[in-house]
Amino acid sequence: MHAFELDARPEPPLLTTPAPAAGLVDAHPAFAWGARDGIRRYHLQVARDAEFADVVVDQAQITTAGHTSAVPLATGEYFWRVAAVDATDEGPFSDVQQFRRLPEPPPLNDPALDDSTLTIRWRAGDAGDSFHFQLAADAEFAQPLVDADCTAAEISVARPAGGTYYMRVKTVGSDGFEGPYGGAQALEVPAGGKPWWLLLLLPLIGLAL
Predict the structure, then answer these.
(1) DSSP string across 45-96
(2) Any idea what the CATH number is for the domain that residue 132 is in?
């Protein structure tokens, strides 16, 4: 048996943000941990694997108990840890925590409406991304009229009856993880089968006659 001395000082800080297994939309996430007395700086690492063989953020000169990544993180799973550094030593890293960078919801473009079809398009995502689209007559989407998976950044559906509708879309990453829905956007569908732009022009046509 051999005696040995384990240098586990300074102790690592308590990780606070992001919470374990959190899903983050921001490509530049903010990290935070508990401050410790007598600590001069902190060492933050973010990696794509729990063994930290593929480190994407490695900041060893952080003087506050938090850091916002200057490196944009692609969608996917990540792991992070922090070590504290006092006047003489860097202590061990904290326990590893996992989080996921979720795909952002794409903004919706103005819809195209004709006598029979409603077409909605939005910004395309990364390679391999798909989307989930909903259209409802209520802002809570309790009973969606359209609830569809889309491989392309658009969808065409039968023109609904006149009235107010709400639409939203979310991105599904190539790994199957779903981002949050974007904010619901209201859509006014005129009654009847004429295109909405023609309805706006009819009074002007009458004046011209």
Answers:
(1) EEESSTT-SSEEEEEEEE-SSEEE-SSPPPSEEEEEEEEEE-SS-B-PPPPP
(2) 2.60.40.10
| pLDDT for the residue numbered 4 | 42
195 pLDDT higher than 90: no
pLDDT on residue 191: 86
- pTM check: above 0.90: no
Q: Is residue 180 part of a domain?
A: yes
**C-alpha pair distances (Å), 46 with each of 12, 137, 192:** 15, 43, 56
Instruction: Give the whole-angstrom CA distance, residue 89 versus residue 5.
Output: 15
Looking at the structure, do residues 56 and 76 belong to the same domain, yes or no?
A: yes
Q: How far apart are CA 133 and CA 151, in angstroms?
A: 11
